């Protein structure tokens, strides 16, 4: 079992990355192998228009991790009412249909506003359904992210951390049941 946690932005110092790192730690604490796939580490060559026809070799490690994962947790911020373009582009660059077809997916939204990235999560759900992914129903939306994190970048609200722990436990079981294996 391997869960890949996708940090859905390439913004330096992002709060999304801080939350994704905490989610990774939650999976480890529960005994589920997980790793953080950070879009800030995408190779610059992937943004060359020629990448649509032939992916650069440096993108292979991203592709391989997604293909090998038993489940993906997509942690997305809300930028201008939607998911970051880099996240959609990343999905577009993955092999189709094998990357997400029948792949268990879970979503966490992170936003400064009151709705906790509901709009980008809902849009990503549409994409996931179109690609025939197995979507875990327990989404976690984190509103007011600037107030939600302490000075070390960890979530302050114990109830919110508990919801992430419950999501991790439930998603690991869901991925084991609904994965491709």
TrEMBL record:
<dbReference type="Pfam" id="PF03358">
    <property type="entry name" value="FMN_red"/>
</dbReference>
<feature type="domain" description="NADPH-dependent FMN reductase-like">
    <location>
        <begin position="1"/>
        <end position="143"/>
    </location>
</feature>
<dbReference type="InterPro" id="IPR050712">
    <property type="entry name" value="NAD(P)H-dep_reductase"/>
</dbReference>
<dbReference type="InterPro" id="IPR005025">
    <property type="entry name" value="FMN_Rdtase-like_dom"/>
</dbReference>
<dbReference type="GO" id="GO:0010181">
    <property type="term" value="F:FMN binding"/>
</dbReference>
<protein>
    <submittedName>
        <fullName>Flavoprotein</fullName>
    </submittedName>
</protein>
<dbReference type="GO" id="GO:0016491">
    <property type="term" value="F:oxidoreductase activity"/>
</dbReference>
<dbReference type="GO" id="GO:0005829">
    <property type="term" value="C:cytosol"/>
</dbReference>
<dbReference type="InterPro" id="IPR029039">
    <property type="entry name" value="Flavoprotein-like_sf"/>
</dbReference>
